[in-house]
Amino acid sequence: MKISVIGTGKTGSKVVEMLGDNLAHAFDENNPPTVEKLRQSDAIIIFVPGDAVPEIFDMVLESGVPAAWGSTGYEWPQGLDEKVKTANTKWVLATNFSLGMNIIRNAIRELSSGSNILNNPSFNIHEIHHIHKKDAPSGTALSWKEWLEKEAEVTSEREGDVNGIHELTITTATEKIKLTHEALDRSIFAEGAIWAAEQLIKRVSLTSGVYTFGELFDLVIKESRND
Ligand SMILES: NC(=O)c1ccc[n+]([C@@H]2O[C@H](COP(=O)([O-])OP(=O)(O)OC[C@H]3O[C@@H](n4cnc5c(N)ncnc54)[C@H](OP(=O)(O)O)[C@@H]3O)[C@@H](O)[C@H]2O)c1
Predict the structure, then answer these.
(1) pTM here?
(2) Are 16 and 8 in contact (CB under 8 A)?
(3) Which residue, by CA, sits nearest to atom 18 of ligand 1?
(4) Within 10 A of 96 (CB to CB), how many other CB atoms are there?
(5) pLDDT tens across 77-90, in order?
(6) How is domain 101-182 classified at the CATH fold level?
(7) Do the Cβ atoms of 82 and 105 come closer than 8 Å?
(8) Residues of 53-85 as b/e, b for ≥16 C-beta within 10 angstroms?
(9) 187 falls in which pLDDT band (50, 70, 90)?
(10) Domain boundaries, the chain
(11) Is 137 in the pocket of ligand 1 (CB under 6 A)?
């Protein structure tokens, strides 16, 4: 199994480190990818900032190599699933590659439906990241809001070298409920992205098209239950 990495900054460098001998190529701005080089890989993992996605998008699609995208702060174009299907390949998009985020997704859905019995609750999603992060609010905070399916205030804070803290607070006049996720080490994103890339390579039941990380996770869990 050979995997290429595009973007070898704070997060991508962890992927390169964890891949070891399974690394095909590592690309950054000084060593940009080419379709030919990308095709020497079984999968591609991408951690470039959202504003750099348009520079590599067509190349990754043209290569036809399955891709796990971690970039946030980019609005994916309409008809993406069709484009990826036409290229006969598979992409997974993740605002947060932490495997624990899939537990959080289910917990948020529970809190959302449970909060229907509360008296006039208000919802706040607060995220804290390192000072170099380009997008705000984080892609993860936006995913939390989507999973919550409620009107929620989303607030952001930039501080030191924080890897990522997300907190959902539900408040009524008489009680407060909090759910927090903290990324202790950036290697959790690398671990999840490699896991996703491996699924794209080996899971024959995955047809071409675009998957969210959550969809991929649920599919694998479902299949393992049926084994
Ligand atoms: N989904 C997740 O789980 C997750 C987790 C963490 C971060 N992220 C997201 O991942 C992205 C990267 O975050 P980061 O903190 O690792 O950023 P970073 O430290 O700034 O690294 C960005 C990397 O992208 C490279 N790059 C930029 N433009 C490029 C281009 N046109 N072609 C090839 N390489 C290019 C840079 O190359 P140079 O060094 O040569 O400039 C650098 O290696 C952000 O959008 C962030 O929000 C997602």
Answers:
(1) 0.92
(2) yes
(3) 9
(4) 27
(5) 999 999 999 999 99
(6) Dihydrodipicolinate Reductase; domain 2 (3.30.360)
(7) no
(8) beebbebbbebbbbbbbbbbbbebeeeeeebbe
(9) very high
(10) 3-97+187-226, 101-182
(11) no
Write the CB contacts of 102 (distance below 8 Å, at least 6 apart in sequence).
213, 214, 217, 218
Catalytic center residues? 129, 133
- Distance of alpha carbon 137 from alpha carbon 154, whole angstroms: 7
Going from the Cα of 5 to the center of ligand 1, the distance in angstroms, rounded, reads: 10
Which homologous superfamily does the CATH classification assign to the domain defined by 3-97+187-226? NAD(P)-binding Rossmann-like Domain (3.40.50.720)
Whether ligand 1 lies within 6 angstroms of the CB of 49 is answered as yes
Cα–Cα distance for residue pair 174/192, rounded to 1 Å? 38
- Mapping DSSP to helix (H, G, I), strand (E, B) and coil, where does residue 209 land? strand
List of residues 6+ apart from 157 with CB closer than 8 A? 126, 127, 128, 129
Q: Encode pLDDT of 197-220 as tens digits.
A: 999 999 988 999 999 999 999 999
- Render 3-63 in DSSP notation, one character per residue: EEEE--STTHHHHHHHHGGGEEEEE-SSS---HHHHTTSSEEEE---GGGHHHHHHHHHHH
CA 47, distance to chain mean position in Å, is 10
Query: Does ligand 1 lie within 6 Å of residue 191's CB atom?
Result: no
